[in-house]
Q: What sequence folds into this?
């Protein structure tokens, strides 16, 4: 069974640009969560989607948004990039709903903002 | 406030020695706790969850509600246990929202 796939794996952007990251969950998994990982703040929850609905959102500004499609694939978007958005963005999927907290993580998308 | 604290950034032990990775949490409800592990050049993966009460790769963790702790233990460390370990708390029901501790690097020396 294929794991969680995230694209792109690496990207470099400049301040003010926007970025879209993609996540394909494990087949059959309907819940997708996104996390930001930085050396200073560690792993921080961004948001979670189940059946195309955002069920939970972390404490991030509105520049961070996401969505989920009917095939459970998810995207997250960051607009007006700031230097502090440089991070590893991790996507995780889970069967949902009862097992939504048992996460299988992708390899991450490493974003560098210059 | 909901919080997970892992007081040690680095824990270094010799092979065969016992290991205890500490985790304390702050949560007003009934907690659901996990340990996740990241081996070198691998993805973050689930090690165990307190509900399962199982032993994975020789590791166990017991939830102590009185001390609000969920320490990870192994009686005899192996070199392959060297990794980053994260304690995590499910803070909002079954919605995939976990609060992670800062992580502890376990280094097992030969």
A:
């Amino acid at each position: 069974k294929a794991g969680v796939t995230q694209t792109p794996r690496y990207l470099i952007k400049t301040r003010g640009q926007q970025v879209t990251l993609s996540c394909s969950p494990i087949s059959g998994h309907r819940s997708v969560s996104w996390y930001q990982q930085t050396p200073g703040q560690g792993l921080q929850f961004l948001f979670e989607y189940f059946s195309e609905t955002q069920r939970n959102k972390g404490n991030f500004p509105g520049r961070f948004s996401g969505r989920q499609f009917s095939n459970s694939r998810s995207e997250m978007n960051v607009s007006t990039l700031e230097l502090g958005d440089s991070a590893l963005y991790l996507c995780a999927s889970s069967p949902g709903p009862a097992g939504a907290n048992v996460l299988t993580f992708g390899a991450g998308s490493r974003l560098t903002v210059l | 406030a909901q919080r997970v604290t892992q007081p040690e950034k680095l824990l270094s032990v010799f092979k065969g020695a016992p290991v205890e990775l500490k985790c304390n949490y702050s949560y007003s409800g009934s907690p659901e706790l996990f340990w996740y592990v990241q081996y070198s050049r691998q993805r973050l993966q689930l090690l165990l969850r307190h509900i399962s009460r199982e032993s994975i790769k020789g590791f166990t963790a017991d939830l102590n509600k009185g001390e609000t702790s969920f320490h990870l233990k192994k009686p005899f460390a192996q070199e392959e246990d060297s990794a980053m370990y994260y304690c995590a708390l499910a803070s909002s029901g079954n919605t995939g929202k976990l609060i992670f501790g800062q992580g502890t690097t376990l280094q097992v020396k030969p």
Remarks:
- The radius of gyration of chain A is 13 Å.
- Chain A touches chain B at residues 3, 31-33, 35, 42-45, 48, 50, 55-56, 58, 90, 92, 94, 96-108 (CB under 8 Å).
- Chain A has a mean pLDDT of 94.
